[in-house]
Amino acid sequence: xxxxxxxLFSIMLMLVLMVPTSAHAQLWSGIVDPTRAADWSTVGVxxxxxxxxxxxxxTAACNALFGGSVTATTIQNALSSAPANTVVRIPAGTFxxxxxxxxxxxxALRGAGADQTKLSMTGCQSGGGxxxxxxxxxxxxxxxxxxxxxxxxxxxxxxxxxxxGTTVITLSSTTGLVAGAVGTGSLxxxxxLDDPSxxxxxxxxxxxxxNTANNCSNKGGNQYARxxxxxxxxxxxxxxxxxxxxITPGLAYPNWRTSQSPGAYWNTGxxxxxxxxxxxxIDFSPSGGQAIYIINxxxxxxxxxxxxxxxxxxxxxxxxxxxxxxxxxxxxxxIYGRPTTCNPFPLANYAYSDQEVSDFLIENNIWDSNTDSMxxxxxxxxxxxxxxxxxxxxxGVSGSQMHSGNVMMDLWxxxxxxxxxxxxxxxxxxxxxxxxxxxxxxxxxxxxTTGYAMGLLTNNRFFNLIGNVxxxxxxxxxxxxxxxxxxxxxxxLGWQGNxxxxxxxxxxxxxxxxxxxxxxDMFTSTNRxxxxxxxxxxxxxxxxxxxxxxxxxxxxxxxxxxxxxYLTSKPSWFGNVPFPAIGPDVSNGTAPNxxxxxxxxxxxxxxxxxxxxxxxxxxxxxxSSPSIKSFNAAACYGGGTxxxxxxxxxxxxxxxxxxSP
Length: 661
Description:
The model is unreliable at 1-23, 145-151 and 639-661 (pLDDT under 50). The protein has a 17-stranded parallel sheet that branches. The protein contains six helices and 46 strands. 6% of the residues lie in helices and 29% in strands. By secondary structure, it is mainly beta. β11 and β12 form a beta hairpin.
């Protein structure tokens, strides 16, 4: 597995995580310039999820759950009574449960398996300062009153310590801050003013904004962060010395600066921490609201669950909504949304959405029948979306979409989906990386508007697209030009989009700042369905922005790619799937490799796809279309061992080309 030992919080965090990014080599070293990437090896729950070694809670309130009474009240009573580092178990069965809050630290709430324990959620409640339609069935959150801009926060000026990688900053006040390891230390949200015009350090570079002025976006954004301050990173306070505050991790972005009046804000008290929800079905269809809201949290997890919504209502829905939190893991879940068609246009069904969130790991999930599955939807950054499978999706982009401003330094690795979009609807996006993803077009997902594999619209700059595999019969050419973009290309770059709202211009700086290296595509290939085709793999120096003035990326000296940009070894949940599963150095892949879905042999079915294709229909939902599956994470991912990271082959040959098509 990626991490050496469960939850060595005090020692491991203080000694290891306080080390700045620059102190050790990254998995992407020699490929991506350090100004353009983050240390993604530290995302997710620190030390990984610990609950496998925890004892069962045996208090009277915990035992009562096995006495035939499973309600919102009895669940909350059990959670409140549980000693630290224990598991509150819910037995097999189907239970009608009202909305409840999970505010207990160091406790896991666990069912007998998603195919055995089912909570039918009959109501929802507002919480965490959220109101209106933001009514959720389960709040995993601290007991603090007020979150973020919704009241009860302390603010400070950030007066020094802006360099990328810095772990010590200076604040004008430290009132209410508590130093500690991730989970016990205070969370602070770092921000700065939006750029007033395009861009920094020069026009056409970073344009950090979320408004409709000066060609920033179609509709404006930033609903959750402070107004006019759409660039955020959430960090943990690990030390306080006067007005100097030590944070973990270090600063991820390269553009913090005095001219933009950097600041910070926080809630009093520590976040809910070291707690999670495991191995149950949560059907929130009857509630008329949302499923799980995670608010003001650190080191929390949602694993092995089946989260369902079949409600045909018209309200915006979320399965997992995360706000002002750090270091969470969303792993090995089956998420079924609200099926829709293109006409009328799909209702907003956002399966995962984050706001003011950093260092979350969204990994090995099945996203079935969602309008948008993975949707960073307001200021966020330094998160990882990896090895997720999207099926039966219906929207302009089925699966992966950056939808608000400002999203920076995210990693998208190993996913199998129709396509990826960095849009310009609500703001700009910068320094994000796509590595070893498999884009297979409309073969398993529908598109209502666009059909490209990788689309970066206006103000999506300094992206890194490396080692991806893209092939589908609905793709018609290698790359769209600015005048006719928005079609069915492998790469759609700098298009202004077709969303309503304030029009923006096309953007040639998207291509100018973009790094492409080692991607396989069907149009470059002369042997699309080969078992190890290298003619479609492009290592083209002209597609590396080595000559730009700011945030340049040198042409890599080698064509070898690491297995992962965040995993140091093969995780156990990979089972028998080869690792790496996707990329130009993979051959004889198990994913379909046909004339309509060519891969050149470079894509295996990832573990979440293998799991999905093994599932049977759930007879309890016989009327659902597409069919809802019966799901048990242990049955899908119980095998496999960790192995050393393989050495990539050395026989790859670059395509001899000096300019892009």
